[in-house]
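Design request, C-alpha cells follow.
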C-alpha cells in the first residue's frame, strides 16, 4: 500500500529516510550484530547511541553546558508533576511555594492543574473565554514565584508563542512537545524545557528534558527517585533502563535534521508549508481558521468548515474526514475537545503533503 500523508497531532509522521535507515539497520546496528532494542543500555554498544543523540541535540538547539539534557519516560504528562515537585516542592507540613502559568489551551491548563497539587499555582492570564484563539499578553511574574510555566505550542488549539515572555530571575518553564526543533529557540531564556518525542523527534516513549543544572537538586525528601531530575542528571539518563530503541530512532532523526540544514532550514520549510495552508484557508469562502493570525502555530493548523448551522457543519466535516482518508490524507479530525478539523504539519511532513491537502480541500469545496 502507498504511504499516506499522516496529519496526526502525534504520534505522527517520521522522515521516510529515517524509517528506511532504521529498517536497514534492524538486524545489525553499527556493526554490532544486534538491533538497538536488544542491547544492554549500559553496554559499549548503546552508550555511543545515547551520547551521539545528546551531542546532536545540543548542536541543533545550541544548548550550553549550563544545561543538562535528559532522556526520560512517562511522557510530557509526567513533567507536569516533575516540574512543580523539583522546582517548588516543599517538605511535608511546610508552607507551599507559589508559581504561575499562562492558560493558552488544554495542555497548559492540564499542566497548571497538575502543578496545583504541589504548589499554589496562579493563572496569570488566559484566553479560555475567547475559545483559546490567541496567546494572551503575559504579565510579569511575582518575585516569589518559583517558576513561570507556558505551553509554547498549543497542539489542540493551534496557537503558539512567537517569542518567550520575559520573566527576569524567575525560571521560565515551557512544554515544547509539539514544536521542538521546528524553528530556532533561544534555550538560554528558559530554566527548563520538555517535550514528548512522538511529534517532531521519534516514536512515543521518550521525553526530552533540558534543564538548567542549578535548578536540580532541590526536590523534597519525599520525591520518588524516578521523579528527581538530580538522579537522572547524575546517572546520565541511565538510572533505570531507558527507552533504548526510541532513543536510537531519535538519534537518527537528529542526524537527518543536521543533514537537512538544522532548525533554521526547518523554520524556513515550516513557514512555507503553514503559510500556504493558512493562505488558502483565509482566502476561501468555505473554510475558516479560528486562531488570530499573530498567534498561529506553524505545526498544528486548526480549521473548520465555515457554516453557522452546527449540525450541518458537523456533517460536512465528517464527510471531509472520510473522503480525505480515501485519498490517503489521514487524521484530519480536530481534537475531541476543540472540534472542527486540524492538520498537524510537523518537520517530517513534506511540502507535497500540504499541496495535496490543499488540492483535496479545494475539490471538496467545489
Ligand atoms: C503540548 C502537549 N503537551 C503534553 C502532551 C501530552 O504528552 P504525553 O502523551 O507524551 O504525556 C501533548 C500530547 O499531545 C501535547 O501536545
Amino acid at each position: 500500500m502507498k504511504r499516506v500523508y499522516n496529519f496526526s497531532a502525534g504520534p505522527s509522521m517520521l522522515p521516510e529516510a529515517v524509517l528506511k535507515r532504521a529498517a536497514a539497520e534492524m538486524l545489525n546496528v553499527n556493526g554490532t550484530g544486534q538491533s538497538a532494542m536488544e542491547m544492554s543500555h549500559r553496554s559499549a554498544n548503546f552508550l555511543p547511541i545515547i551520547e551521539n543523540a545528546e551531542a546532536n541535540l545540543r548542536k541543533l538547539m545550541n544548548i550550553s553546558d549550563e544545561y543538562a539534557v535528559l532522556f526520560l519516560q512517562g511522557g510530557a504528562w509526567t513533567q507536569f508533576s516533575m516540574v512543580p515537585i523539583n522546582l517548588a516542592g516543599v517538605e511535608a507540613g511546610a508552607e507551599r511555594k507559589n508559581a504561575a502559568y499562562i492558560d493558552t489551551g488544554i495542555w497548559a491548563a492540564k499542566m497548571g492543574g497538575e502543578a496545583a497539587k504541589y504548589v499554589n499555582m496562579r493563572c496569570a492570564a488566559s484566553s479560555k473565554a475567547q475559545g483559546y484563539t490567541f496567546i494572551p499578553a503575559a504579565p510579569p511574574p511575582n518575585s516569589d514565584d518559583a517558576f513561570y510555566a507556558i505551553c509554547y505550542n498549543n497542539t489542540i488549539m493551534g496557537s503558539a508563542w512567537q517569542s518567550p515572555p520575559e520573566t527576569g530571575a524567575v525560571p521560565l518553564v515551557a512544554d515544547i512537545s509539539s514544536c521542538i526543533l521546528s524553528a530556532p529557540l533561544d534555550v538560554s531564556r528558559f530554566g527548563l524545557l520538555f517535550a514528548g518525542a512522538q511529534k517532531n523527534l521519534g516514536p512515543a516513549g521518550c521525553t526530552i528534558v533540558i534543564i538548567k543544572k542549578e535548578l536540580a537538586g532541590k526536590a523534597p525528601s519525599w520525591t520518588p527517585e524516578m521523579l528527581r531530575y538530580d538522579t537522572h542528571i547524575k546517572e546520565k539518563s541511565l538510572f533505570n533502563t531507558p527507552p533504548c530503541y526510541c532513543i536510537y530512532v531519535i538519534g537518527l532523526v537528529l542526524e537527518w535534521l543536521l543533514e537537512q540544514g538544522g532548525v533554521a532550514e526547518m523554520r524556513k520549510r515550516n513557514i512555507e508549508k503553514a503559510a500556504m495552508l493558512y493562505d488558502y484557508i483565509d482566502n476561501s469562502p468555505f473554510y475558516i481558521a479560528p486562531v488570530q493570525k499573530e498567534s498561529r502555530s506553524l505545526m498544528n493548523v486548526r480549521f473548520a468548515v465555515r457554516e453557522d448551522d452546527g449540525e450541518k457543519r458537523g456533517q460536512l466535516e465528517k464527510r471531509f474526514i472520510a473522503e480525505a482518508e480515501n485519498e490517503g490524507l489521514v487524521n484530519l479530525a480536530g481534537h475531541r475537545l476543540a472540534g472542527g478539523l486540524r492538520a498537524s504539519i510537523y518537520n517530517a511532513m513534506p511540502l507535497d503533503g500540504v499541496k495535496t491537502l490543499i488540492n483535496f480541500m479545494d475539490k471538496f469545496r467545489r
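Comment from the thread starter after seeing the answer: thanks! The chain has two domains: 16-259, 262-365.
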